[in-house]
């Protein structure tokens, strides 16, 4: 469980970072769609705890996207959640 290939792992991380730093909610829309597609693809490889951590990272990234107050603080919270997800993934690469 909790094992992803390098390509999927890197794409998840990059999409979440792009979502969190998007200047508008609209500009994050395609990245959110791509993230949701990839999350559905990898969900079977993740246990419930890992799925929860990935969801938490996504929620925080989405909250940081766009023109929001205290954006840097929200990005920092997102990065902490992403770190928690990254720590529990078994990376064979």
Provide the descriptors you would attach to this structure in a database record:
93 residues; mainly alpha
Please give the structural blueprint.
Layout lengths: L5 H16 L3 H18 L5 H17 L6 H18 L5
Q: In brief, what are we looking at here?
A:
This protein is mainly alpha-helical. It contains four helices and no strands.
How would you explain this protein's 3D organization?
The chain has 93 residues and is mainly alpha-helical. It has one domain (6-88). It is 74% helix and 0% strand. The chain has helices at residues 6-21, 25-42, 48-64, 71-88. The longest helix is centred in the middle third of the chain and has 18 residues, at 25-42. 28% of the residues are buried. The model has no long low-confidence stretch (mean pLDDT 96).
Overall pLDDT, averaged? 96
Taking Cα atoms only, what radius of gyration do you get, to the nearest Å?
13 Å
Helical residue percent?
over 70%
| DSSP summary: helix tally | 4
Number of strands: 0
Largest sheet: none
Structural class: mainly alpha
Strand content: under 5%
- Give the CA-based shape: globular
Order of helices and strands: HHHH
For the record, the count of structural domains works out to 1
Low-confidence stretches: none
**Cα-to-Cα separation, first versus last residue:** 15 Å
